[in-house]
Queue: 3 jobs
Job 1
Amino acid sequence: MTRRITLIPGDGTGPEITEATRRVVEATGVPIEWEVKEAGMVALEKYGDVLPGDVLDSIKRNKVALKGPLTTPVGKGFRSVNVLLRQVLDLYACVRPCKSYRGAKTRYSDVDIVIVRENTEDLYAGIEFQRGAPETEEFISTVERLLGKRIREDSAVSLKPISEGASRRIVRFAFEFARANGRRKVTAVHKANIMKYTDGLFLAVASEVAKEYPDIQFEDRIVDNMAMQLVQKPELYDVLVMPNLYGDILSDLGAGLIGGLGLAPGANIGDEYAVFEPTHGSAPKYAGLNKVNPMAMMFSAVLMLRHIGEIDAANRLERALAAVIAEGRYVTYDMKPTPDDPTAVGTSQVADAVIGKLAELS
Ligand code: NAD
């Protein structure tokens, strides 16, 4: 039966890597009808809206989307469409596997961790007070009245809500993920020593949920120590679960462990919908150059195929990608010994090589 999936090409280098990924997924033989939808800068220019209603309708209908990166201008204009999508569809779990493949340019050879990041709250909730705004003055004086703490009057302020409910469901998700994927350990990452109420709540809930899963080991780490430990001995870690901002930062650290952003896939999963996208952004300076690595998005498609039950196709695509990486010939600049290596190939040539390997493997 043909499966309908929403395809959001994104902007910057998004459309190139999306096209390359669409081709390799089609080469697995899984019958998919793509419903192509525009969001972000492209949609803003065409329809005056960064997230037109029909994009959400399409994902709600199809339940699954594959998405290229979308640009968010820093410090001005609209808030991130990526964050908006996660909030509106309640995609509360961001799953980012960081696995090393033989041949990838990295200092480590045995990394296999999965970062499970809470996606809906924390400093990412977008509750901010602008410096000098009347509500900021009121907020600052309220804090002083209620808590006796003084915030400098020329401050901007961001709020960090961490709820018991959202913490519980993300930690449960991490344990269920561990169980379903034959993983042995879950590590909760936090800063509860300093943020006693917010991260303290997250840690307390995590410790409680862990008791429901006696078959999976549980431990916790303070986020700064976690960063160092991941650099020194990543092989000790398995599934890591954490609030939103730490997840954002450690995901990139994890990408660094396995050979860079060009190889780091991601999935945003809720109880009803799932959106698969690479960890990296739109790398706009390379847009239209057929240059960047499409593998992070291709690995995201592997996760998507698994999610829709196409296990065999997912495994074949993963093996084909691993074979292209191991060979090291048809890979982009970021995977060559130096970025100016003249043998680096472009985005679409990587797709050709993966399709070639898929044919050899079947
Ligand atoms: P970025 O990930 O786009 O790029 C940072 C650098 O990483 C690039 O300059 C490039 O050197 C390298 N890189 C990234 N992707 C690569 C690939 N596929 N192959 C090879 N090298 C790659 O991060 P940024 O520059 O901070 O962000 C650019 C835009 O993307 C911003 O507007 C940001 O908000 C947005 N963004 C979107 C998402 C998303 O759509 N989910 C995620 C992160 C950032």
Note: The mean pLDDT is 95.
Job 2
Amino acid sequence: MQTDALVAIRAGKLFIGGEWRDAESGRTFPTINPSTAEPLTEVAEGDVADVDQAVRAARGAFESGAWPAMDARSRAKLLHAVADGLEARADELARLETMDNGKPLREARMFDIKESIECFRYYAGWADKIYGDVIPLPGPYLNYTRLEPIGVCGAIIPWNYPLQMAAWKVAPALACGNTVVLKPAEQTPLTALELARIASEAGLPAGVLNVVTGHGETAGAALVRHPDVDKIAFTGSTEVGRIIQREAAGNLKRVSLELGGKSPNIVLADADIEAAVRGATSAIFYNTGQACTAGSRLLIDESIRDEFLEKLAKRADGMRPGDPLNPKTRMGPLISQEQLDRVLGYIEKGKSEGAELVIGGDRAEVSNNPGYFLNPTIFDRVTPEMTIAREEIFGPVLAVTTFADLDEAIELGNKTDYGLAAAVWTQDVKKAHRAAHALRAGTVWVNMYHTLDTGSPFGGYKHSGYGRELGKYALDLYTQVKSVWVNLA
Ligand code: ADP
């Protein structure tokens, strides 16, 4: 089936209680293709009433036991069937993601979709291995723990890795026996709807996974405030993360937050320069810089500055954006006009605060396409006080600063409110580990950047959030511990 046909079929529905429904208000809104700036299709504008229906459906599926009481191996089988369904439609899903988000098709297929499939398989494997302990205590007691699901989980996700962010939350939540209401980002709702379709076709019982499309301040906020939602898992901006933490206080929902970043990418003088240049380029320009882990602060030893910058600028020049459906394209557009304006605003700030523009800084012409294309941008001589060194830009804008030695590099690296990721490039094993231990970030890469895997935990220090997704650590986010005492006297 053509993706275009799928777009037409899906138009304007929410997925609640196993059914496709219009929003109660009857309202829809367009989702825009960022590489053409034209609407792709209409999406239902879910709001308070729709969220309420979805939460009721999820609560019903949870309380009836259709999902949590199902034996864990059957649950695993269904999650594998979801992975099979995603795999069977992987090419189509990649195309849909590219049209909705603007990322290069090859990356959507080889990264987003592939990793989403992996994620469902990985947590399918965990489903029947989630269990507690028997604890030896003084006294005539049998004491044991059970890891029980939390209940109805609200998942609110961003637009930069749409299907993957859905998978990171839905797969572990379901593996642990929870039911889910998923609110995709308003900019990129299509693959979440496809996930619901695929899961339903795979045999997931009605109400176990519900998808409500809509805006953050309405549908998202309604989910966060709903008194019958037990947990909110959120990925997005630090600003909205703060609001969510506050708004979730009503019924003391559990909250996990994966927020912004301003990650330092540190290159020591003894690094393999060619590898570090390649790494620094993809660190900032991958996904057009719209990655919470983007290596947006490049810290280089002052002794290699000139050589490094020359090579980096040359490589960045080769990353000029293009049509994301073209297999040769390595960088697509930004997600929206709003984001383009925001990033251009930061570029102006960089200039006015005295940073030196090395390359880019302007919009890119892509074959008369009115999409939101921006050239890869590098600023040199950035000081830690400058706005472009402090704030998350979420675009292809790199801030370069130099340092004199490792201690200064670590100090500069940690000089941020964020703490999502960091990297260090060096051939000295002692320096590598010293840096890895000293950097205050949830992920540290040594001689690499951006690599993630479903098996390894991911999350933030400081204002980058809390809670660890992926790996066995995600099971803590979606279970609660019960201690059972039996009197043997
Ligand atoms: P970004 O800046 O990357 O767009 P946001 O943090 O604004 O990220 O959005 C991430 C997700 O949070 C989206 O699904 C969005 O709809 C949702 N969202 C935005 N504002 C709120 C809010 N006040 N309450 C709940 N969800 C929200």
Note: Residues 166 and 214 are 15 Å apart (CA to CA).
Job 3
Amino acid sequence: MIRDVLRMGDARLLRVSRPVEAFDSPELRALLTDMRDTMAHLDGAGLAAPQIGVDLRVVIFGFESSPRYPEVGAVPFTVLINPEVTPLGNDEEDGWEGCLSLPGLRGRVPRHRALRYAGFDEQGRRFEREVDGFHARVVQHECDHLDGLLYPMRMRDLGKFGFTDVLFPDGAVAPDD
Ligand code: NI
């Protein structure tokens, strides 16, 4: 079922979410179905459970090609529960981000370039990956939602925050430079 996505200003987006304790349950399956339906409906690159008002440490992300981020390569579709994120190295890079909770806006956000993430899939199987670039950016963005953080709270230059159609009038989001 397609759910409403909470928008910035809703206090539920600022909560620290709780770990999932029961895997492979009807409740978790229903939550993931709703998250997938909602993300697909909005062409999102990712979605975190708090964005639909559920304070559990569950995120989904991934796409073959994203109309919201036409300049980036595919990220495998992933269900990530109770994630742990560990930066690899000290490199940071700036890149444009949007969020379904801030429709129509983009901002340039510093993120760790590379990281390891670990967590559980919906059957409770643990997995781990090392990633960089946009994949690492998406993981940091989505996992931040589980700690009540929205991307503007990570920005250092609010001069690089604005409406997508004003920032990118030709419709193409500028590649990272
Ligand atoms: Ni978001």
Note: The two ends are 38 Å apart (CA to CA).
